[in-house]
Amino acid sequence: MNSTTTTTTGHLPIERLGHFDPEVHQRVQQWLASGQLLAWIPILSQENFPDVPPQILQFADRYQEAMRWPIHRPEDLLTLPDGITGWLLPADADDTDVACGVWNGEVYILGVQDKRTGRKQTLLGERFDVATGQADEPEQSAV
After folding, report:
1. Average pLDDT of the chain, as a whole number
2. Scanning 85, 95, 112, 117, which has its CA 20 to 30 A from the CA of 135?
3. What is the pTM of this model?
């Protein structure tokens, strides 16, 4: 049985799930505590947008820079569209391995992995270990 613990950060309660990744949690906490501008970019996938043809999603994906949703403070995460997963990153960053979504009024922060290969994904593609040139081992996390 997975135990869960709820903590509060500012105004947002955070529930640690069974597959909680402390490194991702700490990184997002630091981003939010620093007061820096963050951005949320919707992940244009069939899972997020099941009624949109794949070729339209591929076309729109080329314009993801224009789709950045500004996150000025933690409460802004609650204004994200319900049921849509997106990438979360500092506004001046180009890549991230952190995803974020709101489901039924609850904010979830998680890692992303390819369902077919199990490999970690980032906004710009598959996550690789620079030292070995190999993709990281699969691991999904949520806070």
Report:
1. 77
2. 85
3. 0.72
